[in-house]
Structures are given as structure tokens and as C-alpha cells.
Amino acid sequence: MHTIMASHAGFCAGVKRAFKMTEEMAGHPGKWYTWGPLVHNQTVVDYFSRQGIRPIEDIDDISEPAGLIIRSHGVAPEIIEEARNRGWQVKDATCPLVKKVHVIVQTLAAEGYDIVIFGNPQHPEVKGILGWCGGEATVVSGLDDIKNLNYSRKMGIVSQTTRDEKEFYEVVKGLLGRTDELRVFNTICYATQLRQNSALELCQEVDLMIVVGGEFSSNTTTLYKECLNTGVRTYLVQDAGDLNPQWLKGVKIAGITAGASTPDWIIKEVLCRMTEYEEKDIQQEVQEQMQEQVPEPVIEPQQEETGSNERPAEEANEELFARMEAEMAEYETPGRGDIIKGTIVQVLDDEVMVDVGGKSEGVVPLRELSLAAVDSARDLVSVGDEIEVMILKWDDDGTILLSKKRVDSKKVLDQLEEVFEKGETVSGTVKDIVKGGLIVDVGVVGFLPASHIEDGYVKNLEEYKDKTFNFKIIEFNRNKRRGSQVVLSRRELVLAEKEQQKQEFWDNIQEGQIRLGKIKRIVDYGAFIDLGGYEGLLHVSELDHKRIEHPADVLKEGDELEVFVLGVDTEKERVSLSRKKLLKSPWEIALETLKEGDIVDGTVVRIAPFGAFVELDPGVDGLVHISQLADYRVEKPEDVVSVNQPVKVKILSVDGNEKRIGLSIKEAQREMEEQEVEEYLEQQE
Ligand code: SF4
Questions:
Q1: What homologous superfamily does CATH list for 408-496?
Q2: I need a surface site. Which of 135, 564, 585, 621 has the fewest CB within 10 A?
Q3: pLDDT in tens, 386-396
Q4: 74 in ligand 1 pocket by Cβ < 6 Å?
């Protein structure tokens, strides 16, 4: 047995396009539905159901706004309008060839023609066409239906795209006697015609025809009937499972065709099953005839005759389709939610008039002009500016209410969605404090939960207000109607930044460096100094050369302080600091200020057999030798001075290297007495 495939079978361009658009929507956010089954083929419907896209017959079936895909058959404009009014997104996959019929009937209705639609009144495509001429048309499905038609002065006829051309012209002929003027639009799709022609040709070569497709598909059933009418035994199968091997008994050549709503994978499945039957058939023949030569099984596409114009016809059809698609885009009236371009023709304080290219004018009220609040539209735009606007509403007088703000918002959301998907960061300014976090302006309003502001608890949210930071987007939902669409976080970035700072800190810190730090915490044994990402310890003993009772006596939390790096332990991650190292020692100060011959105040701090030690400054002592205690011979220093006694001393010598200062009480007293005598004598004179 040979199996021959019809040269034109399966998905047409319109169905392919709708199928592709629906597949794209499967990965799109939100819930999506098709208006009725996408095509009249249960396998395709099941395929999309598994991806979450189910058919609906009524918008009321779904309570929440969702996405609606209009299948290639098209729908009445009211359905699209209703969906948009309810906040649904609409993806219009109406076949451009069907859309062309919509435009024709709209024009005929506007010009006062009585419209006749040749087709099945129950078919969704016909219902859609009726909607585009306001329901003012008569649907006829055959010659019988035109008998009762009233006489009309001018009449126009279109056809359901999948109808038989011969029948269409029979109806046209029948209408001729019923009107003065008849405008005929043959809107039958070439794709359907091609499938029918190639199936009919194939019928002349085969003993059996298999038509693959849904039983409710108009073009499939037409194909089936056409093949049956040729007298060839014909079966309609939905898929390979419907094939009955009994049908093939005695069949030498079988033909396969498929309706425009039948996907490739089903056709291939049927073809494969037929091949299996062929092989069984051959094996049986081999067994029966043993020595007989058995021809190779052949599956071949229907041969196109040399010089045949079928291939060019197919190409012409594709070309026509592409052209239609482009033309239809111009015919389309933008609807609610569509974004269009326009030129500003007038700017007032509270609104902007926009020329959107049609007969109607658009108005953008001030509140819909920009995401930021402004006092006057004149501050933002000027006459002649080109802007993109979203249609909010068509008024009865033809005025269109527009929004630029929503287009801007959509663009910002598009960018934020990309940032979210790529895991990048976005900059934003904290605008307000609300329960549980902060409101951040990232082009649109974003929410920053309090737990995501820093890497720990934040006590005072006020200090973040009006400041700009970078954020990660941790939740993005552009379909959410309530609450925040964009949820932000700084925590991860703060942690990463800290880790980087820490790494840099340990790479750069070295003993002997002088660093500027911030006093973080004061404890009894010292203070922790933030050196920019990491804390070092400043021990109390390293605070000063003199003894410090408590670090808080000389330090204050939050103050900045220069410190000397005493030691670095990278393994234990410890840094010891000193403030003392950066202060002059009492001896250094003393050496700068004390000069030999000066008489200064001091306090006796210790007594030794050879003299008394006198403190001149904290930490700086000098020695008054026993011979310098008085101007008479002293047996024991205690006879002249006692500990804690304040004394006047003359500096006899300063040895900076040895840190020794020689002092004399005797000399100081003598000089002071001489001074007194001198002053007295000066007064006498
Ligand atoms: S009009 Fe033709 S191309 Fe468009 S969906 Fe119908 S059969 Fe397919």
C-alpha cells in the first residue's frame, strides 16, 4: 500500500499565528483564557489547558481580571470592549483575513447597504462578523435561505472565510434578482480553497481518503464532504487513535489530508500509523508469496505536476496574508489600554490636547500627565511635542481621554521587571515612613520592609527619609491590584558592601599606621574604634601617658579619633590601637617648657636619704639634692621638707636624654629674697 499526503494540509497561516501568540501568552504573567476553543480541535485545546490557558464562553465565568486571547475566528467588538472595561488584558489573534471581513461589513453598514453573510449562523466567525455590522445583517447558509429575503435597493455580500466558493457564487447568483445593486466580496480564504483543491485532486488517485481534524471544525468537515462527494471511501479521524486497520484492507493507495485547524504533530502521528500498517501489509505479502518481489513501501507527498501553479498559489496566499496583516493594523481602532503616539496641539494649565492622527482629539488631564506632581502642564510639555499616551476612555462625542502618566509608569515597570529578572540593582529615594517599613520612589512606588533596610534591626527610620540608596527588587508583580507591586531590599547589598570593606580593611591595615576612626563603644577596659568596616580595641592603658581612671573620662561615643595601629592579628581578626602614641610625653613637654634658671612650683612626692623628689608636671619629677634643700647643713631631708609639700624650686640642670632635672630649693629661696630686697630698695628710692 502507498500513502500519499495532500500537498496542502494542516494549519493555515491564521491558525499558526493564533497558535504562536497563545504559546507566547503561556509564559506571560497572569492567568490567560481563550475566547472559546482556540481552534476546533480538542487536542490543541487540551495542549493549552495543560499550560494553564483554558477556553471560556463568558467573561462572567471569571471573577478576577485576567488576560483574554481572541482566537483567529475573531469576535464582536463589544466583547473586546467589555473585557477591557473590566480591566482585562486583550491579545487579539483574529486572523487578518477575518479582520478584513469586519472592515468590509463595517463600511457596508456605514454606507447603508443591506448586508448578507454567507455562512453558518452558529459559527463563531459569523457571530463575530455580525457584531462588526451592529447585528444588522442576514446570514444565509444556502440558496434556500435567500427565498424569503426582501427586495433591497443596495445589497452587499461577504462570505464566512471557510465556505465553499461554488456555493457562494450560487448564492450570489440567487441574490441578483433581489436588488438594484449588489456588491460582492469574495472573502473565502485561499488556504481553505487550496486544501480543498489538493484533496480533490488526490481523490482521483487513491482508493481511500483519511481526513484528519476536529469534527466541529468547519473547514475539516467541508474537506470531508468534498472528498466523500467524489465517491472515494473517506473517513474523518481526529487523531491516529481513530484509525481502523480494517479500513485499509485491499487498499492499494491511501490519501491523507487535514483541516486548517489540525496541528502538524497529529498529521505526522496519523502518517506514522499508516506506515506501520503498510509494513505489516508488506510482511504479510512476503509470507504469502515467499518468492515474490515486494515493492518498497512509499510515503510520498502528492506530486505537483510540472508547470502546476499550486506552489505559486500557496506562496501568493502567504504573501496576501502578510499584506493583509499589515493593512489590518491600519484599520484597527485603538481601544482602551492601547498605547498610541500623538502630537501636542494645545497646552493649558490643567490639560493637554493631543492630535492622535484620527478625526478625534485626545485630552490628557494634568493628573494623568506625569508620575511626579506638577502645578501646571506648561511646566512639562509644549505644543509640537510628540508623546506616547494610553487610551483610558472614548467619550460619546469622540473625545479620547488619554494618559501619559500610565505610559511612563508602564515603561518604568518594564525596566524594573528587567532589573528584577536579571537580579540587578535600582536606585531610589526614600519618600515616606509607613507601618512596617519605608516607601521608596524607584520611578514607581516601591516598598522597603523594615527588616530589609540594613543587616540588623533599625531603630530610627526617620534618618533614611529623603536619602537615595541602591536596592534589589525581591518581589515584582505588575498585576497586583492592591498593595505594593515592587518590594525592595537593601540588606543583601549592605552585607555585600560590608564584606568588601572588611576584605579591603584586612588587605590594607598595617602596624604603625595612623588611622582616623569613630568611637563606637566605651567599656571599662577601653574603647572600640570603628576603622571603617572593622573595629579595633583601644585599651585604657593606651589612652594617655598619664593614668586614666575610666575611658569615658576622656572619650565620647560617636566622636572621631586619630589612633595609632599597635598590632594586627589577621587570623584572630584583632587590631590593637593606641592614642598615647600620638600624644607628647610629659618629658617631651617638659623639655620644651622648662629652662635652666627658671623658678617653678612643684610638690614633694618622695623623700630619699640624698634629697627630695619634686613633681613639676604629672610624670615629670626633679631631684633636690640634700645640699640644695637649705642654705645651712641639713642632716636629713625630712627635717626640711615633707611629702605633698608645695615648694618653689630653681631649675639647675635639664638632661633630656637621661630624663633628669636638677632642682634647688635653697637657690630658689635666695633668689626670691634678693628679688624682694631689690623691690624694697626700688620702692625706697
Ligand atoms: S481565514 Fe484562512 S488563514 Fe485565516 S484562519 Fe481562516 S482559514 Fe486560516
A1: Nucleic acid-binding proteins (2.40.50.140)
A2: 135
A3: 999 988 876 65
A4: no
